[in-house]
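[retry 2/3] DNA (cytosine-5-)-methyltransferase: previous attempt timed out, resubmitting with same input.
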Amino acid sequence: MVGYGVPHESFRVVARELPEIAMGPPFFFYENVAQTPKGVWNKIKSALYEIEPEFIDSKFFCAAQRKRGYIHNLPLENRSPILPLPPLTIFEAVLETREWWPVWDKRQQLNCILTCQESAPVTDRIRSALETSNSNEPSEETKQYIMKQCKTWNMVWTGKNTVSPLEPDEIEFIMGYPCSHTRGHSRSERLKGLGNSFQVHTIAYQLSVLKNLYPRGINVLSLFSGIGGAEVALHRIGIPMKNVVCVEINPVCKKVIQGWWNNTDQKGNLVHVSDVREVTEEKLVSWISLFGGFDLVIGGSPCNNLAGGNRRTRDGLDGEHSSLFYEYVWILKAVRRLMGRKKMHLMWLEKRESEVGTRTNGKNEDLTLRVAVGYEQKLT
Ligand code: SAH
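[retry 2/3] DNA (cytosine-5-)-methyltransferase: success.
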């Protein structure tokens, strides 16, 4: 799972053929879990211009696995990672654990960070299983039980015979967020937000190509923004954000993004929208007019009905939450259509101007014309 290449890996593709309809700005970037029920990625691909997904495991970027598929129309050449790269092993990422780590636990990296953690009884059971072992080394059966629990719940050794789940601060570090990014919210909310989030270094590597294209900054439509993985990544790459529309239903996530925005002294505008289903063509038109268009439409729609951990409602892309993917699709297509038309309309305006020497007065109610006129006003 190295996609078109990851830092330090020799396999690298720097060119691909995109269908013409998907080429060029506004750029887009879509993410979801790699391991889905059969046929899901084919459906996603066919809704997103038949572009092949790029599957990447974040274990090449940080100390935890995270297998994700990405569909985007970004250029591939000259990608660069955020430096310094974070540690790739548990020992380097969670320093205190080394002292207590038994030799028979061979893990070097963590499994995927989940949205919830084990309950205290598992830790207690592990401790008592180890304490009742007669020798220094527990039986094979005990070891197997412990390893299964540790791997499932990403537990690390924090004392004699003691394993503990990762702390939210440790997860933030592994996932590439600033220290205390989600602080001030309940542990379960923090874990939920972090478990759903982008691994910042992984997506920053893919988005890094935008830096040279937009030295003065970009306008972002961020759908399903969560705790702001996209925004944090763009910031860490060094791409200024001129205007960001964040669409996120969870009020805790919204507070996390707003807090981060304030703390990092962003100069741009941040607009919040609560529900992706509230985004209308009229709203898109007004944002496009106001900002002069979007440069990036980014988001990973909910994976609740796709992820392997969910046995009960793993009913695929048409499941209650995962079907929100189709909202991403229509919004992206509407933005590209409106902006494409905008470009055509600007050309038309220029032509008309040169022919008759007048400009349109902008009273036409047609959405396309309103976009073009708004954009034109912004330029003049
Ligand atoms: N990429 C994000 C997380 C995406 S997880 C990050 O880096 O943090 C999917 C997100 O979609 C969750 O945060 C969830 O709260 C949000 N969501 C679910 N239903 C939504 C809806 N109807 N409108 C907007 N956001 C929604």
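[retry 2/3] DNA (cytosine-5-)-methyltransferase: The pocket of S-adenosyl-L-homocysteine is lined by residues 196-198, 224-227, 229, 247-250, 253, 275-277, 300, 302, 324 (CB under 6 Å).
[retry 2/3] clearing retry counter.
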